[in-house]
Write a sequence for this structure.
């Protein structure tokens, strides 16, 4: 191994929460739209950099989640940033398939507040039932 | 009071965490840059809508934090969105003063990962010591 891969100072710099996680915000590198927020543990973040694709920690499944592993909707990493408190990261990603949300929409943030209620304003681009039967990319 | 202000269904729809909080991502309405992430409790979110400006819950100070109350760097609300899991909100904001970060930078996400390290790549626009002695707006 090289010095470069041995160096984990950049991971040690992060303030992981009590569960060893950090929120990760994925933003579309082209449109700058915020696509989704998920969690990463140390291994997930390290692998995200190593493989140049978003790899999260699924709290519900309690395992690494290579975004797109079932849907094909892989997120290719273009840039990774850390905030001033070292407790949130942002990822500029290229969203393969143009769909980040499990509901079949471009973004998970498809509900807008207006007049005392949340309104779904973005179209479903693909039926979720079809997303998860699709062959992997 | 009107029916509209009595209605809190939109707040009940949110999955607050065990501390009664939700992460809020502020994004610049003009540049679409992600400016910061902070927390809101129920009252903070309600007031954010009522006053059309970002009001967070400061976990360190354990009180409401009207963004800009000391710095003048108020965030005027343009749009509020909720994600599919109802546990993160995004705010499109107009950032007064052009500075969201307490370090005097436009965004809190001023560190980029490159070659095994975080690199500060964004300029300090105003000395933090001067930000917090400025008169309130």
């Amino acid at each position: 191994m090289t010095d470069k891969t041995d160096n984990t100072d950049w991971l040690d710099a992060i303030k992981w929460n009590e569960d060893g996680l950090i929120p990760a915000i994925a933003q579309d590198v082209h449109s700058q739209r915020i696509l989704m927020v998920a969690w990463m543990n140390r291994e997930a973040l390290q692998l995200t950099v190593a493989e140049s694709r978003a790899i999260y920690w699924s709290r519900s499944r309690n395992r690494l989640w290579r975004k797109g592993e079932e849907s094909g909707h892989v997120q290719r990493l273009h840039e990774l940033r850390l905030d001033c408190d070292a407790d949130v990261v942002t990822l500029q990603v290229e969203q393969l398939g143009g769909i980040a949300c499990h509901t079949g929409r471009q973004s998970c943030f498809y509900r807008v507040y207006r007049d005392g209620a949340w309104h779904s304003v973005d179209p479903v681009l693909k039926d979720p039932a079809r997303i998860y039967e699709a062959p992997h990319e």
The beta strands of chain A are 22-28, 34-40, 55-58, 63-66, 75-82, 89-95, 111-114, 117-120. Chain A touches chain B at residues 4-5, 7, 9-10, 13, 23, 25, 27, 31-34, 36-37, 49, 79-85, 88, 90, 101-103, 105, 108-113, 115-118 (CB under 8 Å). Residues 9-102 of chain A form a domain with the Ubiquitin-like (UB roll) fold (CATH 3.10.20.810). The radius of gyration of chain A is 16 Å.
